[in-house]
Amino acid sequence: MLDAPNSQYRILSAATVPAYLQTLPAVVDRLGGAPSDWTVRDVADGNINSVFLVDGPKGGVCVKQALPYARIHGEGWPLDINRAIYEDAYMARLAPHVGQLAPEVYSFDAEQFVIVMEKLEPHIILRRALIAGNHYPAVPGAVAEYIAQASFHTSDLAAPFERKATDVSLFSKNLSLQRISADLIFSDPYTVVWRNKLIEPYLTAWGAAFRSDVDLKSEVARLRALYFGKAQSLIHGDLHSGSVMVTAEDTRVIDGEFAWIGPSGFDVGNFIAHYIMAWYAKDEQPGDETEREAYRRLIETDIAAFWSTFRQRFLEIWRAEAGAGDAYFGDHFNDPAGASRLESLRQAYVDDIFADARGFLALKVIRRIIGYAQIADFHVIEGAEAQARAKAGALALARSLLLHPDRYPDIASVIAALPRFEAVGFDPHPSRNW
Amino acid sequence: MLDAPNSQYRILSAATVPAYLQTLPAVVDRLGGAPSDWTVRDVADGNINSVFLVDGPKGGVCVKQALPYARIHGEGWPLDINRAIYEDAYMARLAPHVGQLAPEVYSFDAEQFVIVMEKLEPHIILRRALIAGNHYPAVPGAVAEYIAQASFHTSDLAAPFERKATDVSLFSKNLSLQRISADLIFSDPYTVVWRNKLIEPYLTAWGAAFRSDVDLKSEVARLRALYFGKAQSLIHGDLHSGSVMVTAEDTRVIDGEFAWIGPSGFDVGNFIAHYIMAWYAKDEQPGDETEREAYRRLIETDIAAFWSTFRQRFLEIWRAEAGAGDAYFGDHFNDPAGASRLESLRQAYVDDIFADARGFLALKVIRRIIGYAQIADFHVIEGAEAQARAKAGALALARSLLLHPDRYPDIASVIAALPRFEAVGFDPHPSRNW
Question: Which of A237, B41, B72, B319 is the most buried (most CB within 10 A)?
Answer without folding.
Answer: A237
